[in-house]
Amino acid sequence: MDSLVHKMLFSMGIYHLTVGHMLMWLVSFTLIYLAVHRKYEPLLLLPIGFGIFVVNLPLTNLMEGHQILAVFYHYGLEWEMIPPLIFLGLGAMTDFGPLIANPKTLLLGAAAQFGVYMAFFGALLLGFTVPEACSIGIIGGADGPTTIFTTVALAPHLLGATAVAAYSYMAMVPIIQPPIMRLCTTKKERLIRMKQLKPVSKKEKIIFPLVTCLLICLFVPASAALMAMFMLGNLFRESGVVERLSGTAQNELMNIITIFLGLAVGGTMSAENFLQPKALLVFVMGLVAFSFSTIGGIMLAKLMNLFSKHKINPLIGAAGVSAVPMSARVVQTVGAQEDPRNFLLMHAMGPNVAGVIGTVVAAGLFLTMVQ
Q: Based on the structure, what is the number of domains in the chain?
């Protein structure tokens, strides 16, 4: 009888509950709170938070065998299906018009990858391996799907930490970026008004994704999966002949994939995997990466003003991180605080979407270097 009682107790999750599990519940509830109450990236932080919660319920084994989270992770992330499909939806939502109208802003998107490489070398100095450093550095691009794509390929044991760091910092753009933007610019610079963008034709908008995909995939083939889907989604949008495909990519497909992505990422964050010094240090390095990316874009804009007839408001350089469109909105907010009639949003969208391209290229370079 005693052995039967013991067996029944041993089969209950509560018998195996640890402090680590409860600490991860706290992490889970924090993300859910940020999603629900603060509305920080709710579409992702909510499923990620719930995924963390259920994977840390003892004996559920949801990340083993053919259990639901294991299936999402295996077919969605290990097989590298989810990040490219996310990019298909992002492409369908993206307007490259501001970038085409002012091609110089492509340089600002490239400069905003400065933090990616700073964090990469910083991680190496802290004792991380090269693949781990690549995965940590890419957080600086503030691009969740690219971070996940890179980490799954190079350092899957860090997936939970890098993904949550990337999406957390994306969500906190309105908190992190404004102090850096004010610190790196003068009031006079923040008051600069940029000339109106020229109109962009439909032909230009159709040619752009084709040419960009061609050039980037030729020079950085490792980025092809993300870049091809990104530009295909944009071609759906700009062609004007496949509204159903464009709408599906933006809405139904994007929503379904987001659920799978959030649960799969949350499922990797068991107490055993996450409560490690390396995983916790990822959050610090991610913040360093994101901050230096913001600084890099601003500083290049200031440098370009030394040689440019038409001045650039350096604030738009901060939008070079690929948190689309949140960082562009932050630029508009900070600029409007100095001059309410200064409309920087569309100017900031140029470097903003260029930052997405820049982060994908950086990821491709890392994958080429390591694999």
A: 1
- Residues 83-140: pLDDT tens digits? 999 999 999 999 999 999 999 999 999 999 999 999 999 999 999 999 999 999 998 8
Let me know if residue 21 belongs to a domain. no
Residue type at 322 in one-letter notation = S
Q: Does residue 41 sit within a domain?
A: no
Residue 30 domain-assigned (yes or no): no
CA distance 173 to 178: 8
For the question of whether the overall pTM of this predicted structure is more than 0.85, the answer is yes
DSSP 290-304: HHHHHHHHHHHHHHH
Residue 348 exposure: Cα atoms within 13 Å on the Cβ side? 29
Q: Which domain holds residue 136?
A: 61-370
Evaluate whether residue 360 is within a structural domain: yes
Radius of gyration over every alpha carbon of the chain, rounded to an integer in angstroms: 22
Is residue 68 within 8 Å of 62, Cβ to Cβ? yes
- 129: tokens are 């391996």
Give the type of residue at 334. V
Token representation of residue 30: 């924090």
| Token pair listed for 146 | 């690219």
Question: What is the three-class DSSP state of 308?
Answer: coil
223: burial class by Cβ within 10 Å (0-12, 13-18, 19+)? buried
Per residue in 267-316, pLDDT (tens digit) is: 999 988 888 888 878 988 888 888 999 999 999 999 999 988 889 999 99
| C-alpha span between 18 and 357 (Å, rounded) | 43
